[in-house]
Amino acid sequence: MFLSMQTAFAACKQSFAAQQKKVATISKKRVVKSKKRTYRKASARKYSHRELNAIMRILERKFLSEDKTPALRNVVGFGMGSNSIDVALRWNTKEKQLEFRRQIYNSPAIRFEGKLDPIIDNREGVSTYQGISLKAEKPSYPLGTTEIRFTITNHSGEEFVYGEAYSITAQGADGNWFVVPTDCSFTAIGHVLSDGQSGTITAHLFPDILPNKPGVYRFFYEDNIDGNKVLLMATFELRETKSENCRFYGVTL
Fold first, then answer.
1. From CA 89, how far away is CA 161, in angstroms rounded?
2. Do residues 174 and 55 make contact, with C-beta atoms less than 8 angstroms apart?
3. pTM here?
């Protein structure tokens, strides 16, 4: 696999095997209902290692290019399956899959991994637990913000080790909270905090992939504290600035 589809992404997506089974079932139904044989040919085709490897090389060149379009930035990783090229998207919708095929590469060998977004996550956490606390550096940020820092503080009376994995949710129009596209791979490293020390977790938003909307967001950091699985949560707000509001209505300042 060229780019690893790591733990945080895998945790919120269903197994690709289940997704393939679903696709295969849909393909069979379409073959029965249609006189066309395109679905049968596409699903039955066996790709050689050479063909799949050629697609991998093309995707690698595009991904490593300096000109990162929103479509490329939406790609988390890709790898060679037994008879497919498996692609993981940061924001995985039918529209984004079509965008990938139109702007990056289109082949029947391409298969998209995981559940379709939005993924509902109505969980709530706590801001502090046994002396370990979490908060955003500022309560609010401009709507176009792409990077937000969170402070984790240790007043537990002993050393605390924390990592970098996190998730962020926003509230949809239906009232449900859903996972927004953020970083999907994290360095497996532990940061040690002595009692009384603070550390930083840096989170990223991708408004060029999914536009930020005004409102309150939830930031989650999950860890094991004294043998208990704890979900720490901090909230922050994205606010529309005057210039952003004018751009929205087509006014140039």
1. 30
2. no
3. 0.78
